[in-house]
What we know:
This protein is α+β, with helices and mostly antiparallel strands. It is built from three helices and four strands; from the N terminus they run αβββααβ. The chain has a four-stranded mixed sheet. A hairpin with a 2-residue loop joins strand 2 and strand 3. Helix 1 packs parallel to helix 3. It is globular and about 35 Å long.
Amino acid sequence: AAKIEAALGVKPQLILGSQGIFDVILDNNLVYSKHKTHSFPDENKLVDELRQHQESNKDITLTAKLLYFP
């Protein structure tokens, strides 16, 4: 969450999930799902993807959500 905030200036909303979930949702679009990939994302690749989304959608306000299970 801190890396996303530092790179994009967007403070992700952390939402407690269950069953080992770790999903990243940006502007209501699922960007990453540990449930689908069975692994955690590479942080740098994820931030790059989010940055590309941000750059291609400059006219909207980004909202980011991280669903996680501690």
